[in-house]
Amino acid sequence: MPRTDTTTLDLTADVVIVGGGPAGTWAALAATAAGADVVLLDKGYCGASGPTASGGTGVWYVAPEPDAREKAMASREGLGGYLADRRWMARVLDQTYENMNRLATEARYPFPIVDGQPFKRGVQGPEYMRRMRAWVKRSGARVLDHSPVLELLVDPSGAVAGVAGYRRQHDTGYRVRAGAVVLASGGCAFLSKALGCDVDTGDGALYAAEAGAELSGMEFSNSYAIAPAFTSVTKTAYYNFATFFHADGTPLAGAASQGGRSVIAGELLRNGTVLCQIDQADPEQQRQMREGQPNFFLTFDRLGINPFTDKFPVTLLLEGTVRGTGGIRVVTDDCATTVPGLYAAGDAATRELICGGFTGGGSHNSAWAMSSGTWAGQGAARFATGLGPARHRRRLAATGGAGLRPTRAVRRGNAERYTGWSDAEQVLREQVHPYDKNYLRHGERLTPALAELDAAWRQLRAETAATGAAAVRIRQTAAMVAHARWMYTSALARTESRGMARRQDHPRLDPAQRHRISVGGLDSLWTRPEPEPAEAGQRLTAVAS
Ligand SMILES: Cc1cc2nc3c(=O)[nH]c(=O)nc-3n(C[C@H](O)[C@H](O)[C@H](O)COP(=O)(O)OP(=O)(O)OC[C@H]3O[C@@H](n4cnc5c(N)ncnc54)[C@H](O)[C@@H]3O)c2cc1C
Asked: What pTM did the predictor assign?
């Protein structure tokens, strides 16, 4: 079993959950309910880490009435480029309905009463995640906070059999030997400072790829959200009620939260300033907004700005795959990946199954997180217990590459002082954050940006060997660079505009590209078209005819 000098904690579990956001906590509940012994590890503090814990969340909660369900499923198919799958949508609607009802009865979440009924189409993130943490602990799962996972461990057959990581508060390493692992570590927002998202650096996808897993939908990863220029709060739905202006106060034609965000990006690129006023919300809607998202208004109130009557500057913050749809490819109903013993849930997994190429405003993401988390927890528990007692006697090998095990000889003494991540982070800032490269995509800009990212990867892979806290940072950097390379490689493979994958050099939807794109690899990348989802394909043909 691999050890590092600083490893002081060795644990054994049936199931390890990586990440304690909505997906990870629901996975932990499902795995313990299935009789598994569970360890949940979070980079931050489970219950307070990640974007859900920091805000309010709409939830795709739809009563099981055929008309309502049909409308809910049909509503996003076009936006998502007809790549979603009705069977998965129906499963998510069923599971979300059940989970939200359990949240009321078993976790006693205080849903507000609207028209005499508990209103379950949204939750306050801090309250939701506080209750999820308490519920997970009551279930008997062990929770280790401030304990980022750094890599997966595999057995001689290549099946995932544990994790290794670092305990920030003890400055020591740890390992957990396990029958199965659920990756619920969130998406990748590239350290853009969007509220709650800086823990989401795509770690799970890197670890999955190192173990041999595939990704899907990575071209649908360029979500940019509107935020006041003076905060990190990206609550985009409210800007559906907004008007946008040039710096001189004249209206910015075509700018809108939905269907006009590229106009905002263009103006920010050209002139650096876009002003906004949420002037289309009536008094009742304003009241509902304040009640729904109190934290949206905090900074406005402190600065004495009334967003409904005053103009204020806005910017666009990259949310990557947190509100994009790409992620680790799942291949079974219980969210198994292509690697035995490895499961994926929430933003770490692809959401194309229910969203296609576009998530739009909220609700689908939280529904996916709680549903896929539930299934992944159940699947991982089944897989682990199915291995029998042998699951804890397997020989383990570490899979981590970039940042941990360089391909070139590096003097150990230099490892802690290595600062290559700051070069790589600079490459990310220059090649991934800018609107004209990642949002307003064009092959002529994507190709050189990808070449820069490839070079950054080669350096990270060849020359870095960090331990302890430095390893956490460099693994995050490696995960973000890997993410960006999968993103741009998939974006170049999709020579059309579909969902949020829009290409200025290929502005039209091409019916011949009605397929998902799988991507994988680390040093050299590959892409592969996946067969179209049959039902959605038929509907698109009907729409086009
Ligand atoms: C501003 C904003 C508003 C949103 N509003 C909505 C909405 O209204 N409706 C909706 O459906 N969706 C919404 N979303 C999306 C929603 O927040 C996410 O889909 C949801 O949080 C995903 O849950 P998750 O558990 O997969 O990931 P996260 O909530 O991101 O949790 C990931 C967890 O993994 C931990 N982690 C990361 N790396 C590691 C590691 N290496 N080791 C251990 N732990 C790790 C993190 O600390 C974190 O606790 C919004 C997102 C944003 C940014």
From this structure: 0.94
